[in-house]
Amino acid sequence: MAETSIVGREAAHFGAMAGDWWDPTGASAMLHRLNPVRLAYIRDRIDQHWQSDERALRPLAGRSALDIGCGAGLLCEPLTRLGACVTGIDAAPELIAAARTHAEAQGLAIDYRAGGVEEVEGRFDFVTAMEVIEHVADPAAFVRSLADRLAPGGLLIMSTPNKTGWSKLLTITLAEGFGRIPHGTHDYDQFIPPDQLGELLRGAGLKLCDTAGIAVSPGRGLHLSDDLRLNYLVSAVRA
């Protein structure tokens, strides 16, 4: 079992993108397009899990949240605005520095830390790892670490590309090939299909609650879908 989830070359690759992480037209432009889709899913699962009022502005008030692989805070900031006490951790110190600077400018108090999930102590009501598992040293160990940090009654949400020809074509051949995503961001051999991720979750003592696809079309762009071929999200709880 790997002692750390961090792969040095992955941390360096993403750290080099820190300077324009918050620029919606920069190197992380695709994440800016993806984030609203993820947030729509997250909000729905929060409301379902905790039976919260879908009109409530702060459904995570009084709850703790941990975002693993937080980058410069694209997800941490909206989770904070939803009321959570948020901790964000990322392997790239450059991204953590950018995250802190941006959060301070927004007047948001977020506990940002550079490192791996294994270094985080305590348990959290809500744990997220979005587009992270395909970049770690040992996916099974990574999922176990996520489970270890999930409080009783808590909710885990993950997202990752599916391992399909369609995903490879759109994500690597086209998006990376034409510069929409920085070259070398993805390794198809590291992509994980839903069945495999489900097995990893069960092996970590978690119960898979829901799976949803993220698809793309000319008319709608990126959107939630029953089509899992490109990218998908899962939610899980303790078994």
User: What gap, in angstroms, lies between the N and C termini?
Assistant: 23 Å
Structural class: alpha/beta
At CATH level 3, the topology is Rossmann fold
Report the CATH architecture. Answer: 3-Layer(aba) Sandwich
Going by CATH, what is the homologous superfamily?
Vaccinia Virus protein VP39
* CA-based shape: globular
Note the total helix count: 7
- What is the ordering of alpha helices and beta strands? HHEHEHEEHEHHEEE
What does this structure look like?
With 239 residues, the protein is α/β, with parallel strands linked by helices. It has helices at residues 8-15, 29-50, 76-81, 93-106, 139-148, 165-176, 194-203, and strands at residues 64-68, 85-90, 111-114, 124-130, 150-161, 206-217, 221-225, 231-238. It is globular. The two termini are 23 Å apart.
Features:
8-stranded mixed β-sheet, 239 residues, Rossmann fold, single chain, alpha/beta
Brief characterization of the structure:
The protein is an alpha/beta fold and 239 residues long.
Outline the fold blueprint.
Layout: H1 8-15, H2 29-50, E1 64-68, H3 76-81, E2 85-90, H4 93-106, E3 111-114, E4 124-130, H5 139-148, E5 150-161, H6 165-176, H7 194-203, E6 206-217, E7 221-225, E8 231-238
